[in-house]
Amino acid sequence: MAGNPRNGRPYRRLVAAQKAKGLPCARCGGYINPNLDPRSPWSFTLDHIVPLSRGGSLLDPANARSMHRRCNSARGNRTAATAPMRASRRW
User: Fold this and answer.
1) What is the predicted pLDDT for the residue at 78?
2) 69: CB partners within 8 A, 6+ apart
3) Which H or E run contains 64?
4) What is the overall mean pLDDT for the chain?
5) What is the pLDDT of residues 34-49, one digit of tens each?
6) What does the pLDDT look like over 38-84, one tens digit per residue?
7) Contact, 42 vs 69, CB < 8 A?
C-alpha cells in the first residue's frame, strides 16, 4: 500500500522551494510569516492553481503558489473562474 505522496521528499522539496521565495499570498496579497506555527490561519501553505481533485499535478512547480492557510481553505477546490480573487484596497 502506497503512502501519502505529500509526505515524500519531492513534495517537501517543492514546499521548501516555494517558501524560500518569500512570495506574498496569492489570494489576499498579504505577507506570509514563515516562522508561524503551521496550525495558525496566517501560516504558509502550498496552493495548487489547478486543484488536485480536478487533475492538477502535485509536484509541478508551475502549478504551485504560496497562500495563507486561511485563504487556501476558503478557496477550496474551486478554480479562478468560480472563485475570483479579491481586489486589493491598495490602488
Assistant:
1) 86
2) 38, 40, 41, 42, 43, 44, 45
3) strand 64-68
4) 87
5) 999 999 999 999 999 9
6) 999 999 999 999 999 999 999 999 999 999 999 999 998 888 766 55
7) yes
Residue 15: partners with Cβ closer than 8 Å, 6 or more residues away: 46
pLDDT at 2 > cutoff 80: no
- Give me the residues paired with residue 44 across strands: 68
Q: Which residue has the cell 524560500?
A: 20
DSSP states of 21-51 = HTPPPTTT-----TTS-TTSTTSEEEEESS-
Residue 72 CB contacts under 8 Å (≥ 6 apart), including other chains: 27, 45, 47
Half-sphere exposure of 49 (CA within 13 A, CB side): 8
Enter the C-alpha cell of residue 8.
515524500
